[in-house]
Design brief:
Distance between the termini: 37 Å
Helix content: 40-55%
Number of strands: 7
Strand order of the largest sheet: 1-3-2-4-5-6-7
Strand content: 15-25%
Largest sheet: 7 strands, mixed
Amino acid sequence: VTAPSGFCRRISARVFLQRSALAVVVAHPWGPLGGSMWDITVRQVVGTFASAGCTTARFNFRSGFGRGYQSIEDVVLVSRYLLDEVPESLRPKKILVVGYSYGSIAAGAAVSELPECIGFALIAPPIDVAGPLYFWNHRALLQRIQVPIRNPSIPKFFLLGDRDQFCTVQSFNDFVEEVAEPKSAQLLPGVDHFMIFRSVSHQLTEWVRRDFGVANIKELNDIIEGQAAAASEEADNGGR
C-alpha cells in the first residue's frame, strides 16, 4: 500500500482476499517494543474473521513515534486500499476496524475518516501510557474515539484484562463511560496485557452476535452482501 506522503511511503501489509462484503482491518501494538502485524493477538483477530469468510488486512505501521496522525493515516490507507483498489469482484462494501494496544488508539481514531466502517473494537487500549506513546496528543485522539465525528452511531467494543500493565480498571471505566452509545465493554478477570490473545476470538465473536443482532460473523457478512446486492439492483433499475 502506497502512502501519499511521509519519509516512508510504502506500508507493508498482508491481505487475505475472499468474496466477502465485509473486510476487517487490524492494527498492531507498538513497533519500537517489537509490535508488528505478526503479533499473536493480531493473528488471532485475523484468523477469527477470516475463518468466517471475511476479507482481512493486517499491516505494519510506518512509525511508532509521533502524535499519532501518521498511524491513523496508515489505518485509513489500508482500509481505502481494500474499499477502492482491490479487484471489483473481491471488493468489500463495509469494514470493521480492530486494534490492539498501541494500535487500538490509532484504529479507533481513524474511524471518523472511514464512512464505510460499521463498527470497531479496541483490545487492551494503553490509556495510562498514551501520553508518551502519542507525544502528549493522546487526549485529542481519545476524544475522536469517544465521539466519532462521521459515524458515532456504530457499535463500539472495548476489551481489557483487569491485570493489564498499561491501563488500570479505573482508567478503562472512566474512558468507556464517555464513549458515545452504542457501546459495550468487557473486563476479563485475571488477564494481563499480553495474555489477552487467549480471549479475543471468543470475545469478538460474542460482540458481533450481541451488538449486531446476528447468529455469527458469517451471518453479518451475508446481510451486508444482501444489502449491497439490493442497492446495486436498485441503481441498475434507476438507470434504465
